[in-house]
Amino acid sequence: RGRASGRTGGPGGLRTGRDVVIGNVAVSGYPGKIDIRLDDVSISDDAAGWAARLPALRGSFAPWYLNRLDGRFDGPIVVDVVKGPLAGGYRLEADDNEITVDRFSGAAIHLRLSGAKVTPDAINGVMAADVLDVTLRQGAIPVFAAVIVESDGITLPGAVVSPFGQHLERAAFRLDLKGAVPPAGPRAEEVARWRADGGNIDVLDVTIQ
Fold first, then answer.
1. Do 201 and 177 contact (CB within 8 A), yes or no?
2. Cα 198 → chain centroid
3. What is the DSSP letter of 12?
4. Cross-strand partners of 102
5. For residue 168, what are the CA distances in angstroms to 116, 130, 162, 163, 209?
6. What's the CA gap between 147 and 167, in Å, rounded?
7. Which residues contact 1 (CB under 8 A, 6 or more apart)?
8. What beta strand segments (E) does 75-126 contain?
9. Does pTM surpass 0.85?
10. Residue 11 — pLDDT band, cuts 50, 70, 90?
11. Are 56 and 71 within 8 A, CB to CB?
């Protein structure tokens, strides 16, 4: 058990500027399946203008198979954005969630939320989805990364004007990041540099019902 804090690193040892603070770290299970619990987790990026905090993050993996990690979080996740058009506070909750990191699936990170609810401070209402699946997959030339989003049973708050109405049966899309290695973060200067290097995004397989 213990406490931890630090700053995340980027490619080539470059620092991304994200500060991570963990209130308590607990590891158990060895020599069997390893269980890790991180309590009171806070992540912030002052340059990009956002911060997030959550009560706990849990994960487990087998020492004899280090290519897969299964986890979940204890909500709610509270996100504060102070820069850009999405500035404001957001609260994410879910009835259940699963996180999978698999190095053998194109270094894929998969998040599945059941009964997901997002409450923005700036909007009177809740955005909800029965099921939300998000997959981030690392690739190589020509597609350096792909983001796949699939959601079922979506309800939008009344303050959100949608040509498809307030209730959607399904929404799905895929984003392919191509042309150059994606930026280390969402900062405007990094995105502009990526675009100048030939980076672009293809929007594929869009479904709205």
1. yes
2. 25
3. G
4. 68, 108
5. 14, 11, 10, 11, 6
6. 23
7. 24, 25, 26
8. 77-81, 88-93, 96-102, 108-120
9. no
10. very low
11. no
Q: Judge contact between 39 and 2, C-beta under 8 A.
A: no
Between strands 15-28 and 2-9, the pairing is antiparallel
Give the separation between CA 175 and CA 147, rounded to whole angstroms: 5
Alpha-carbon span 76 to 55, nearest angstrom? 7
- For residue 192, the surrounding DSSP H or E stretch is helix 188-196
> Is-contact 8 47, C-beta < 8 A?
no
What is the H or E stretch that residue 6 is in? strand 2-9
3-state secondary structure of 13: helix
Total residues belonging to the chain: 209
pLDDT at 171: 96
What single-letter amino acid sits at 43? I
Measured CA to CA in angstroms, residue 87 lies from 121, 160, 187 at distances of 10, 16, 14
